[in-house]
Amino acid sequence: xRAAFASVLLSASVLFAQQPLDELEVDWSLQTPMRExxxxxxxxxxxxxxxxxxxAKTAAFASRWAYCRHYVMGGSHxxxxxxxxxxxxxxxxxPIGSSLCLAEYAPDGLWKETVLLQSKDGCFRDVDVSPDGTxxxxxxxxxDRGDDFHLYEMTLADRKVRQLxxxxxxxxxxxCYLPDGRILFNSTxxxxxxxxxxxxxxxxxxxxxDGSNIVRITYDQVHDNxxxxxxDGRVFYTRWEYNGRSQMFPQPLFGMNxxxxxxxxxxxxxxxxxxxxxxxxxxxxxPLFFGIASGHHCLQTGELMRFDPREGREEAQGAWQLAPLxxxxxxxxxxxxxxxxxxxxxxxxxxxxxxxxxxxxxWRRSKENRPLYRDHRAPFALYWTDVDGNRELLVAxxxxxxxxxxxxxxxxxxxxxxxxxxxxxAKTGVFAVRDVYVGDSMKGVPRGTVKSLRVVALDFRPAGIxxxxxxxxxxxxxxxTPPAVGQGTWGVKRVLGEVPVAADGSVAFEAPVRTPVYxxxxxxxxxxxQTMRSWTLLQPGETASCIGCHESANLAPDFRASxxxxxRRVSEAAAGSRSLPxxxxxxxxxxxxxxxxxxxxxxxxxxxxxxxxxxxxxxTRAGVDDRSSLRRWTKSYLALTHAKRRGDESTSWSGAxxxxxxxxxxxxxxxxxxxxxxxxxxxxxLFTRKLDKGHAPGLTDAELRTLACWVDLEVPFxxxxxxxxxxxxxxxxxxxxxxxxxxRDATAAEK
Length: 751
What we know:
Blueprint lengths: L1 H11 L5 E3 L19 H22 L2 E6 L28 E8 L5 E9 L3 E7 L5 E7 L8 E6 L4 E4 L8 E6 L5 E5 L15 E5 L7 E2 L7 E6 L5 E5 L13 E4 L7 E4 L8 E7 L6 E6 L8 E5 L11 E3 L4 E2 L14 E7 L4 E7 L21 E6 L4 E5 L11 E2 L19 E6 L18 E8 L7 E4 L6 E4 L11 E9 L6 E6 L4 E6 L5 E4 L11 E4 L25 H4 L16 H12 L19 E4 L4 E4 H6 L3 E2 L7 E2 L30 H6 L10 H12 L16 H22 L1
Parallel strand pairs: 27-35
Antiparallel strand pairs: 1-4, 2-3, 2-26, 3-4, 5-6, 6-7, 7-8, 9-10, 10-11, 11-12, 13-14, 14-15, 15-16, 17-18, 18-19, 19-20, 20-21, 22-23, 23-24, 24-25, 27-32, 28-31, 28-33, 29-30, 33-34, 36-37, 38-39
């Protein structure tokens, strides 16, 4: 792979020539019409003078900008940009030519492009500039099947290049420099498959300046995208998530400290709108940020917007449209932001001006006048624009290759946010909640209702085998390697334990680090009062805190201080104890066959069997093969979930979450918070009308709690992804390959 890149360097060595933006390429259609009696030469001079005035602040901010020319990123979904050489399914890679470039401001107001590196078959992407302005970090893939994206660094003074990361079948991309000299980047090293498709997942990793000591930073369900350092020293990134809700809309903007602590939502975590926030960048000296309001099934493009989180962090509360600057209206659109002007990669100069990749004329239109918003060759060029819609072309599209992410080449001071962690190798951290009754998601719940907090860990799939379908008000989609019947849980879940909640609503406990977990609030019977439909994570030694349950994010503790909090000052439950309660990270996944079926056989099967009474639900463990899901369900499981086939015998079984008998939270549910006490075991007729009325004599409290837990975990069947499978030899081999690749890549990263 290094040899392949060396050939690119040699072929590009003659390309260090500057190409000026010709006056004719200036977008004259944007200029003021000629006055009566004005000559064309005078008019041009006036327009160029206005251009120089408009660009004066940008030129002072940075007279040189780095960027890459490449095809427009994305696939059937905005996040699918890995283009792995060994991709199992979807891969989008267009060898239309690519280059690493510099654009430099000239006194005449025009800009000159310098091509630093160029490749006919490869792709350069994701350029970033070192804090001292002397080096460029970027990702490069030399060919379609013979190479993968990896990180490289160029020293601008002599244009020497060194490769930082490597590995066949691994994509490392979207890198950014951190204040301490290390590098944060996106990578497929986690070896996960998207829950609702067959595409490899990328999460965030960190490495040393030379590419060594690779450490995983996020442990997320599906894709993280576009990490970018903010002017105040945080990291913004887009996190796609859908634990306990539809996969269509929750693609919020997240933030964290550079070391990975304090991972929490910045905007849109519980919203229909924006469908996705991409390419977010903070404004220097301001709480505002610019980003792209984009969609789900589209490329990484959309509408340029400005956000003010002080006004709110959900829906359109803090969202402003541009040209002219105005408050926007929330909307529910899958491929959002694809009408009219479309943009990518904004870099703010200040609160009013940005440099970005822009397609001001919008997408080409179909015969039905619909935007053709998956055009990877669309002529995106670099523009300056302001919030009023004034714009100037900086670098035109050349050779039919669009312009990508622009970043200023300048020295800048990066504020560091050091974390106070007692032991980097610590296996645990602490979660602390001040009052679980605070927040919109607990409105109307009487104090004293909540007695404990359940901690649930999520396990993610390394390969996609078999499928069923989900649907609901939040949208529909398939579930690959499904651990439950259709409409059941997206993923395997492990109950790590329950911890007591004090009378004042406070709770603090010790939990395993680098493990994605979410919380459920339980009443005295162990039944769900409210649940998270997201997840959170601890880094080694971290203490993470919140005020309550979906309280306003503007009231929550600053995540910069999350590692310094003393949980005993937060939690009445912990104040009088020597040690915090702990939950274990070694719990097995919740399995219907292991946890629920034995209860049914002890208490129910004596009556609920076809031998005794064929007219009532069959609660035996008799197997039912599902050739779509490639699972062997049991008749008891299908009966309790009121499952039906979606078509003929070749189609999958789908459960009925809205059936009052079980009433679990559907995987197709809305992205917005659900009211408390409305779903799950507390409202399930199975309990309120049957089990609580003595329908199954002899049920113990522990058994009732187990049955309630099953409902509240969204009716899982499998305790791991291999359980009850109907895979053939080839599918088993594919699974083992995924598991082995995950193990190998994780081991390599740890070294």
